[in-house]
């Protein structure tokens, strides 16, 4: 009956007002009829009462006919979204209820939206590439499965010192995993990492360890067995540049520690003699391996044990080179930290998620799964059980920088700061090599003059050589 009335009104002549329509209904007439008798409904308004099913549909926000919106006012529109939109009462209550329903609907939509993608930039030193490629891929899968938060990584590798300077200069790293604490301290001094970075992470922020190894040629033709053999005049040593590579600073400290028991003067003299035997200083540990393995330069290579392990894996058994891990050695400890300022500068939408993912990743590095990845590429695990199962050579007298040289700050000031021990040694080595080059040139000239005087070579060639 209600539907029939509604259809009748849709075709109601424009000259009839709605007031006349309601008057006609109250008189018991069907819209548009001229009769005066009552309708079959028990009440004059029963003809306009819609079925309960239709009212229910309106209440839960179903599509409402144009006629119903005209009758129920704004209340009919109010039920268009969410729950509880239907109305009546002049449409006011229905409109308010509809607005509440729309707000609830929007909240539901927000809840259904997937979380924004978090991108973490990991900045590390060259020899960790293989380990971190494995660890980041597995962490991203497991973290999303556990939290629903998608994470992707951008990875940057290079010399540890170079990487630290890059972050200070603006490389947007969220996490740094560098070769030694000094490099992270430089970033902290620039105001990018909070001062308590070591206290916030297990194991004083050290995620993996190694030692310094001496790599030799096949069959060890120079019979190099330890540190003392590196100062022999017939041995050339390849080591990276301490100004750019963390491995070279570890090499420096290992050499210093070997003679430190005899005093600083003896230690400095020993390190100076070793660096006098260095013909070239590559940029980082990986380049040092290339110079020694691929280019064939040098008789001995100083490098991380894990880098030697990884490089030998990349070569065939015939091309892999032997190495010595001296018993009196330094414990190479590689730390990790969150670059707080870079993380906190993320947008409001992703800042909290970025911080949570970064902290979870750093904690993940100390799990057995991540430690197994470090061990697989030649690192020594910080997990005691894994360390006992290690097949790497035993090093009986490994020492730490803090235990033997004091704090890292004191070590930096003494050895690696401007005008420190390293600068003094490099200056002495440079002067010695320059003097040797001049002496060699003078020797060649003397030989040329002697040969010319004896008639062995033409005077013209002698004159040309003399002008050189």
TrEMBL record:
Pfam families: SBP_bac_11. GO terms for molecular function: molecular carrier activity. It comes from the Eukaryota. Residues 75-115 are annotated as: Disordered. Keywords: Periplasm, Signal, Transport. Residues 75-98 have a biased composition (Gly residues). GO terms for biological process: sulfate transmembrane transport. It is found in: Periplasm. Its main location: periplasm. This is Sulfate-binding protein. It comes from Elliptochloris bilobata.
């Amino acid at each position: 009956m209600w539907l029939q009335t509604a259809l009748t009104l849709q075709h109601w002549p424009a000259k009839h007002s709605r007031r006349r329509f309601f008057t006609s209904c109250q008189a018991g007439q069907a819209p548009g009829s001229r009769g005066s008798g009552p309708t079959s409904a028990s009440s004059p308004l029963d003809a306009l009462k819609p079925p309960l099913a239709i009212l229910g549909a309106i209440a839960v926000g179903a599509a409402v006919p144009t006629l119903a919106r005209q009758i129920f006012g704004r209340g009919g529109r109010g039920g268009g979204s969410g729950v509880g939109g239907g109305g009546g009462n002049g449409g006011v209550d229905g409109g308010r209820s509809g607005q509440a329903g729309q707000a609830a609907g929007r909240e539901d939509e927000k809840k259904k939206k997937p979380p924004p993608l978090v991108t973490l930039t990991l900045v590390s030193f060259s020899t960790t590439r293989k380990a971190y490629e494995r660890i980041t891929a597995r962490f991203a899968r497991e973290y999303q499965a556990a939290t629903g938060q998608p994470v992707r990584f951008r990875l940057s590798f290079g010399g540890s010192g170079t990487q630290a300077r890059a972050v200070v200069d603006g490389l947007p790293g969220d996490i740094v995993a560098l070769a030694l604490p000094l490099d992270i301290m430089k970033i902290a001094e620039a105001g990018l990492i909070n001062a308590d970075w070591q206290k916030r992470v297990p194991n004083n922020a050290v995620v993996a360890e190694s030692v310094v190894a001496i790599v030799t040629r096949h069959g060890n033709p120079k019979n190099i067995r330890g540190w003392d053999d590196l100062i022999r005049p017939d041995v050339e040593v390849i080591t990276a540049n301490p100004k750019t590579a963390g491995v070279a600073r570890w090499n420096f400290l290992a050499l210093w520690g070997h003679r430190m028991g005899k005093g600083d003067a003896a230690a400095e003299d020993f390190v100076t003699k070793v660096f006098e035997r260095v013909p070239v200083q590559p940029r980082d540990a990986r380049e040092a391996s290339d110079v020694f393995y691929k280019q064939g330069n040098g008789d001995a290579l100083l490098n991380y044990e894990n880098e030697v392990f990884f490089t030998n894996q990349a070569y065939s058994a015939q091309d892999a080179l032997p190495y010595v891990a001296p018993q009196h050695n330094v414990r190479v400890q590689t730390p990790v930290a969150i670059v707080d300022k870079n993380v906190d500068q993320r947008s409001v939408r992703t800042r909290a998620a970025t911080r949570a993912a970064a902290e979870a990743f750093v904690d993940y590095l100390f799990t057995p799964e991540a430690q197994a990845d470090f061990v697989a590429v030649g690192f020594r695990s910080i997990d005691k059980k894994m360390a006992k199962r290690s097949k790497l050579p035993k090093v009986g007298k490994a020492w730490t920088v803090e235990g033997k040289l004091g704090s890292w700050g004191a070590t930096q000031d003494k050895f690696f700061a401007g005008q420190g021990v390293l600068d003094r040694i490099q200056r002495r080595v440079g002067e010695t090599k320059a003097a040797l080059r001049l002496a060699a040139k003078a020797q060649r000239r003397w030989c040329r003059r002697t040969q010319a005087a004896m008639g062995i070579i033409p005077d013209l060639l002698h004159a040309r050589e003399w002008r050189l």
